[in-house]
Write a structure and sequence with these properties.
seven-stranded mixed beta sheet, four-stranded mixed beta sheet, 8 helices, elongated
Length: 285
C-alpha cells in the first residue's frame, strides 16, 4: 500500500472525487492467499493504462516487482457511477490475472472478484464438519447448491460417486470447473442455473440424490427453493448459513416435509462481531 501511495505522489496522480466525478485513481485492491502467501494488487482507475504516460506505468511495475510475493498486478478501468469496484476493462500489467490459495487440501484460483472464505482456518473446520456429517461412500450422489467456486464441492466429490454444483453466477461456475481440473477432480460437474431450475434438471437426470448441501447468500434460499428441496425427498440435507435469522426462516419450510434437525454447530468466522456461521444436519424422519 505504501509503495503505491509513493508512486501516486511521485507522479502527482489525482484520486477520484465522487461529487465532481474527477480524478484518475478510484480503488486499490490488495488480496493475499492465506496459505500460499501470494499477493494480488489491482488498481481501479477512470482511464486505461494506455491513456497514461508509459513511464508512469513502467515505474509502478518496477516498484512492485521488488516484492516477489506479488504474483498479480492489474490495472482495471472502472467508470461506474456507483462507488463500487466495477470493471470495464481488465489489464494484466505483470504476472497472472489470479493468485492461488489452498483450502482443505485443494488449490483454488482467486481472481479479483472471486468470493472466497474470509477466514480460511474456520472455513477448514466448516468443510471438515460438512464432510464428516455427509458420511459419503463411492455410491453417493451429491448436490451442492449455491456452490460458488467449489469450496465444498471438491472435498465432497472426493468421497462420492458424483457431485453436481449449481450456481447462477456463470463466472463462479467457470472458476469451479477450472478448480476441479486443477485438482484432478473428474467426478464433479457444474451448471450455471438458478436454484429451482437447476434442481429440477438434476432430479430429472439423476433421480434422487443422497445428499444436498446448500450454502445460500445472506438473504437465505427462500420458501420456494426450500419447498422444492423438501419435495425431492432426500434422506439428508446439510445447510450452511452465515445468517441465523434467514436460516431459521428457511428451516421452517422443511418441517412439513418430515425433516428434523440432527446436529447443529456454530462456527465463529468473524471474531469480535455478532456474525457466526452455522452448519446444520437435517434428516428425513
Amino acid at each position: 500500500k505504501e509503495e503505491v501511495q509513493a508512486w501516486q505522489k511521485a507522479w502527482n496522480l489525482a484520486g477520484y472525487e465522487k461529487q465532481s466525478k474527477q480524478g484518475l485513481l478510484r480503488q486499490l485492491l490488495l488480496r493475499q492467499g492465506h496459505q500460499s502467501g501470494e499477493v494480488m494488487v489491482a488498481i481501479f482507475a477512470q482511464e486505461e493504462s494506455a491513456d497514461l504516460d508509459p513511464d508512469v506505468i513502467e515505474d509502478l511495475i518496477q516498484r512492485l516487482q521488488a516484492y516477489p510475493e506479488i504474483k498479480s498486478l492489474m490495472w482495471i478501468k472502472n467508470t461506474a457511477i456507483a462507488d463500487r469496484m466495477g470493471a470495464d476493462k481488465v489489464e494484466v500489467l505483470a504476472g497472472r490475472d489470479y493468485i492461488r490459495d489452498e483450502l482443505a487440501g485443494f488449490n483454488y484460483r482467486l481472481y479479483f472478484d472471486t468470493f472466497f472464505q474470509p477466514n480460511p482456518l474456520q472455513a477448514q473446520r466448516m468443510i471438515d464438519l460438512a464432510c464428516d456429517w455427509a458420511d459419503l461412500d463411492q455410491d453417493s450422489l451429491v448436490i451442492d447448491l449455491f456452490c460458488g467456486v467449489g469450496s465444498f464441492s471438491l472435498p465432497l466429490a472426493k468421497g462420492a460417486k458424483a457431485l453436481v454444483g449449481i450456481e447462477i453466477v456463470e463466472q463462479s461456475i467457470e472458476s469451479a470447473k477450472r478448480n476441479a481440473r486443477d485438482n484432478g477432480i473428474t467426478n464433479a460437474h457444474f451448471i450455471a442455473r438458478d436454484a429451482r431450475h437447476g434442481l429440477a434438471e438434476i432430479e430429472e437426470e439423476w433421480g434422487q440424490a443422497d445428499l444436498l448441501l446448500l450454502d445460500p447468500p445472506r438473504n437465505g434460499a427462500g420458501g420456494k427453493i426450500m419447498r422444492r428441496i423438501g419435495r425431492m425427498g432426500l434422506e439428508k440435507i446439510i445447510y450452511v448459513s452465515c445468517n441465523p435469522k434467514t436460516l431459521a426462516a428457511d428451516l421452517v419450510w422443511l418441517r412439513d416435509f418430515g425433516y428434523e434437525i440432527i446436529k447443529f454447530q456454530l462456527i465463529d468466522q468473524f471474531p469480535h462481531t455478532q456474525h457466526v456461521e452455522s452448519v446444520v444436519l437435517l434428516e428425513k424422519k
